[in-house]
Amino acid sequence: MLNECAVLEALPQAASEADKRVRDRGATEKAILRAAKALLSEEGFQNFGINAVARRAGCDKQLIYRYYGGLDGLVEAIGSDLGTWVRDRIPEDTGGMFLLTYGDLMERLALLFLQALRDDPLMRRIVAWEVSENTEQVRRLAESRSKALSQWLERMKGSLAPPKGVDAAAVNAILIAAIQHLVLSASAGGQCVGLALKTPKDWEKAATALKRIVRGVYG
């Protein structure tokens, strides 16, 4: 199987030189981005650098400068990719569920976000960095994630509105923060404030509690 950063000569000879360059660049960019995300997920920013990403991607580091403009551009690309993460992991398709109230909407978001965060080690890293590292790179990733979630909610809510007198922005922030803390605590120690979070049954119990909280506020 050809490495995705292979030289142009490895492509079919019948293709034009222009096609070769386009196809090679597209594959290389994807390989670099995948390598960067994997490296961040496994080792964090401490060992995140041009040389390390190039080694992981199996390509010359000059390609990172050429395609992304360097490390800052690569971080920017990862941030942009978070918008895709929200769209893929928290789909706007309601799966047959009718969103009749704002409570329906927030219940769906809470449960999807809970599962998405459990399934994605890089996103858990980003959330952990948000509360522990005040660096420009972390801020950019955190802002991209928050913006993508806000845009999802804005698109989905349509004419749905929270009950009068409820500060939805504050409630939703606390709800998201609670989900994040549950998942991070489970990842670190399999529990959160005495609540076991190891088995599917444990997580079902947590999901039920989340739904009750949402319904208690939004009806």
Automatic annotation (TrEMBL):
Keyword set, alphabetical order: DNA-binding, Transcription, Transcription regulation
Q: Which residues form the HTH tetR-type domain?
A: 26-86
**InterPro entries the UniProt entry points to:** Homeodomain-like_sf (IPR009057), HTH-type_TetR-like_transc_reg (IPR050109), HTH_TetR (IPR001647), Tet_transcr_reg_TetR-rel_C_sf (IPR036271)
Per its record, what are the GO molecular function terms?
DNA-binding transcription factor activity; transcription cis-regulatory region binding
* SUPFAM superfamilies linked: Homeodomain-like, Tetracyclin repressor-like, C-terminal domain
Q: Which Pfam families match?
A: TetR_N (PF00440)
Q: Identify the DNA-binding region of this protein by residue numbers.
A: 49-68
Could you identify this protein by its name? TetR family transcriptional regulator protein
